[in-house]
Amino acid sequence: MTPIERAARALCQMQGQTQDDADWQACLPQVRAVLDAIHEPSDYMKEAGAGVTRYISPDSDERAYAQDAANVWRFMLDAMKKQVP
C-alpha cells in the first residue's frame, strides 16, 4: 500500500466512511491537495534536514545544506505523488 492510499483510507475513516475501494479512491483529490500544499518545506524543516545533509558533504555552507534538504523533501513528495494507486 502506498503512502497516498494510506492517507486516503485514513481520511475516509476520519470522515466515518468505509475503506472500500470506491470510498478511499474518492478521497484521493483531497490527499493530492494536501501534498501540493506541503510541497515547500518550512525554513525550520530545511534546517532539520540540513543536519543530515551536513554529514554527506561537510565542505558546503549552511545555505547549501538547507537547500539540499529542501530538494530531498520535494523529490520525495513528487515521487510519492507519482505512486498513486
UniProtKB/TrEMBL annotation:
This is TipAS antibiotic-recognition domain-containing protein. The lineage of its organism: Bacteria, Pseudomonadati, Pseudomonadota, Alphaproteobacteria, Sphingomonadales.
